[in-house]
Design brief:
Shape: elongated
Distance between the termini: 131 Å
Low-confidence stretches: 1-6, 41-66
Oligomer: single chain
Strand content: 15-25%
Mean pLDDT: 79
Radius of gyration: 32 Å
Structural class: alpha+beta
Helix content: 10-25%
Number of helices: 4
Length: 245
């Protein structure tokens, strides 16, 4: 008796081939998922170290900026509360040539990078000593700028005004005797010692009852600097008494 089998071996081979393909897929899928998770955890090719980019552009090493403070540019982190007949203030110098200075009055930011009114050199805020209202803000480049606009501003300060200043990057190269004298008359003692890339914050006044202790100064010293070619940032806070005629 002759038995004829139609398509048997071919169908068997096809079935075995599909089985092997399915088995391979079942092995490969978990492997791909595992590798993907590992890559996501240990690598991120789209992350850029912007501090390094900035430091390379300014000639400083990337290590300099790894220790720069992480701060909110748009808020006054340290809150200060004063008696009703005083105005609170917070002044922070710049950090190296990367983090801009910050000046706050009554816990409100009045000068800083987020307001686009801070810059290299000497940053200034002038307030009305009676009301606490901010009357002027400005920044003056003392490395590649001109000292004359700074002198004009200092001479325009009215009696009863409080003046707040903060350095950023380099505050001294263009300071001449006239500018130093005008700032000294506002109560500063450190301005005459201010040198290349020193850090400095100061609160004074014209006729206002501002304490002479409202000033901090940190000299640029490569042996002690926190940010290589710049000293550590400094902060100053306190209460300014209202101006009484």
């Amino acid at each position: 008796m002759l038995t004829v089998t139609v398509g048997g071996p071919r169908m068997t081979r096809r079935s075995n081939f599909r089985g092997r393909v399915l088995q391979s897929i079942m092995v490969m899928v978990p492997a791909v998922v595992f590798i993907t998770l590992i890559l996501q955890k240990y690598s991120n090719p789209f992350t850029v170290d912007w501090h390094r980019v900035l430091s390379e552009g300014s000639g400083a090493s990337s290590q300099t900026f790894k220790t720069l403070p992480k701060q909110s540019a748009g808020s006054c982190i340290i809150k200060r509360y004063c008696p009703e007949d005083n105005f609170s203030f917070f002044v922070q110098s710049g950090a190296a040539n990367v983090v801009a200075p910050k000046i706050c009055i009554q816990n409100n930011l009045v000068l800083g990078s987020v307001l686009n009114n801070a810059g290299y050199g000497i940053n200034i805020v002038i307030i009305n000593g009676k009301t606490g209202e901010v009357t002027k803000t400005g920044h003056f480049d003392m490395y590649s700028g001109d000292v004359k606009p700074l002198i004009e501003l200092l001479r325009s300060i009215e009696e009863g005004s409080a003046v707040l200043m903060a350095s950023f990057d380099e505050p001294s190269s263009k300071l001449n005797e006239d500018a130093k004298k005008l700032i000294s008359e506002l109560g500063s003692s450190a301005v005459r010692s201010l040198g290349f890339r020193d850090n400095w914050v100061f609160v004074g006044g014209k006729g206002a009852a501002v304490k002479s202790s409202f000033e901090k100064y940190l000299k640029n010293d490569n042996a002690k600097n926190k940010y290589e070619n710049w000293p550590e940032l400094i902060e100053l806070q306190g209460c300014i008494p209202k101006y009484l005629e």
